[in-house]
Amino acid sequence: MVKSDKTRPSVLIVYTGGTIGMVQRPHSGTLTPVKFDQIKEEVPELNKFDYNIKTITFNPALDSSNVTPQVWIKIAKTIEKHYNQFDGFVVLHGTDTMAYTASALSYMFENLDKPIILTGSQLPIGTLRTDGKENLITSVEIAAAKEKDSALVPEVCIYFDFKLYRGNRTVKRDADQFSAFHSVNYPELAVAGVDIRFRKEFIHYPENRGILKVNTQINDQVVILKMFPGINQKVFDSILCIPGLKGVVLETFGSGNVPTSRWLINCIRRALKKDIVILNVTQCQGGRVSMGQYETSIELLKSGVISGKDLTTEAAVTKLMFLLGQGFSTEQVKIYLNKNLRGEISN
């Protein structure tokens, strides 16, 4: 177990993999993994904090494209094991699937009262123009930040390019710019400039501090099905007939609309009769599903498709996997999908 000195603010850095964990060696010019047990030598700016900083490195380190629900569980259990020893946690993660991991972790941690900040970088931390150092340094500062002995941001968040977002509200929007992430339907929780400006009115603070519960059961028998003009009936039906399928995130047009083709509605109804849960989210980056507003969504509403409101696809698929893993009945899953569990949807 990694121990911390409780006389100073303490932060545990968990390195799972990703671009941020590479440095360019001066003599050879090659990129090699950061020695995270020597993180203060690799990033000497961290020495200016009077923090107790410890690190854990996953072996092997993973490209985020290879992250699976089992990795989410490993991250959650790692934090749970050290939860009482540290004031906050920074998870270093590849950017491609970071929003999925942040969303999944947000559901897994019930009664969370400490920061879990995910960050990464577009360039390796050891390159000259890297964004990795700032992302790491500020994430550590946010993870340690307290007011009246309570965490300033007791949430699962993503910090990137001077902005802190609620993890389950965030999407990756750009593969080339430093501003890789965005949260369209919910404001930033903090903005880093000369000072870090925390927007407390948007941060969730627990009214009653309960005992931390970490629920790591996940059911991955789900699929994302994206609507597009001319979608083929055989393809659509074959997806909904996948053996063992338990849930579908249906990415629809606009405010939750699909073609009015009778075959499509019939396919959906057959799936619903087999107790497959279908959750309707919009393909649009902003806005929300409002089934029944147009004729093209009335049939979905009548059939029993669940509105995802303003859930991101990442938050929707991980919420569905999480709820299906808890042993709930189909009806209970549908009820919880409409509930705001961790700030992932707007009422």
TrEMBL record:
GO terms for biological process: aspartate family amino acid metabolic process. Coiled coil: none annotated. Substrate binds at S64, T95, D96. The active site is at T19 (o-isoaspartyl threonine intermediate), T19, T95. PROSITE patterns: ASN_GLN_ASE_1, ASN_GLN_ASE_2, ASN_GLN_ASE_3. Residues 221-334 form the Asparaginase/glutaminase C-terminal domain. It comes from the Bacteria. InterPro entries: AsnA_fam, Asp/glu_Ase-like_sf, Asparaginase/glutaminase-like, Asparaginase/glutaminase_AS1, Asparaginase/glutaminase_AS2, Asparaginase_C, L-asparaginase_C, L-asparaginase_I. Residues 11-201 form the L-asparaginase N-terminal domain. One of its GO terms (molecular function) is asparaginase activity. Its EC number is 3.5.1.1. Pfam families: Asparaginase (PF00710), Asparaginase_C (PF17763). Keywords: Hydrolase. CDD domains: L-asparaginase_I (cd08963). NCBIfam families: asnASE_I. Belongs to the asparaginase 1 family. This is asparaginase. The lineage of its organism: Bacteria, Pseudomonadati, Bacteroidota, Bacteroidia, Marinilabiliales.
